[in-house]
Amino acid sequence: SDLGSPEPIPDDYFASSPHSNATSRRANATILMLARNSDVDSAVRSVRELEDRFNRNFQYPWVFLNEEPFSDDFKTRISNIVSGPVSFGLVPPDHWYQPDWIDEERATAGRNKMVQDNIIYGGSKSYRNMCRFNSGFFYRHQLLQQYKWYWRVEPDVHFHCNIDFDPFVYMEENDKVYGFTITMYEYHATIPTLWDTVKEFMQDYPEYLDDNNAINYMSDDGGQSYNLCHFWSNFEIASMDFWRGEAYSKFFDFLDSKGGFYYERWGDAPVHSIAVALFARKDQIQFFDEIGYEHNPYTHCPRGEGAWQRGRCSCNPSKSFDYDGYSCMRQWDRIQ
Ligand code: GDP
Ligand code: MN
Q1: What is the pLDDT of residues 286-318, one digit of tens each?
Q2: What is the CB neighbour count within 10 angstroms for residue 204?
Q3: Hey, which of 32, 34, 41, 121 would you mutate to test ligand 1's pocket, going by the most ligand atoms within 8 Å of its Cβ?
Q4: Is the CB of residue 167 less than 8 Å from the CB of residue 288?
Q5: Distance CA 250, CA 204 (A)
Q6: Which one of 35, 126, 201, 233 has the fewest CB atoms closer than 10 angstroms to its CB?
Q7: In ligand 1, which atom is closest to the CA atom of 34?
Q8: Which domains are present in the chain?
Q9: Quick check: 23 pLDDT over 70?
């Protein structure tokens, strides 16, 4: 393949390495899952895997969020398998539901068109609520206020390797903001006016653009057009302080005011990715090659020298999404 070799996590971050003080360093972090009560079986499977591969050695607290109260069954089954503290929170209605000022006729027309065009989740209101919540609200939840870092986990994902280093500590000590494992193209039909909106924002607020940003990862013509590359946000290890900061707060409010979360189907993945690529330094974005990760239908399997062996990974390295034609890893490598 034509991909470069990813920069490895240094040895002394691994608990197993001699002279390591890795286990004594901790970050102010939580593992976060948004889920419905009906997701309980698949939520349990994801938690079980991440506990076995990582968290049983670290005992970071888990936070679960839902716009409906979690059932006793959900709470009991999750509490049974976590190694550290766990809390279950309710999303406030004004962080979840479509705001009153959205023109419902226009929103309905937008959904109907997407259904006709066979766009995935095109007709779903709840999916749009979820995307908007994940874009601009989760980090404001009361249960998350005490934390800086989060690891986003979804039901039914897989962790294919041992994670013997603390990715939160690595990010903190190396001044990172956002970590990903899979990057790909977005469906243009879900975000037809997003980039124009982003360009408008950049013109109005040039002061928020970082001088060493990663805009060339998502634009092949210096910012004129969007190449649809984004980080797949069902996996994220990131700083909530970045989302809480002035640049992203203004950015989210600006996007939200255009109504594109409902008139179109703007995803939290392109919204987060574009913001990180514009407002952070490109070296603050971390590709976690070492973390073997699967969300149907794609898997990232470590490709760095010795990483697959070290992590005792169960994934097939030759089937890693990194090499897929639909992957944006080439664009990512291009800007390194
Ligand atoms: P996909 O990965 O884009 O196909 O979307 P998912 O169906 O996996 O949803 C993304 C995340 O949001 C998962 O963690 C889901 O459990 C969660 N989610 C999606 N819709 C809802 C919802 O209506 N309510 C709640 N509480 N969680 C949701
Ligand atoms: Mn998912």
Answers
A1: 999 999 999 999 999 999 999 999 999 999 999
A2: 11
A3: 34
A4: yes
A5: 11
A6: 126
A7: 14
A8: 11-334 (3.90.550.10)
A9: no
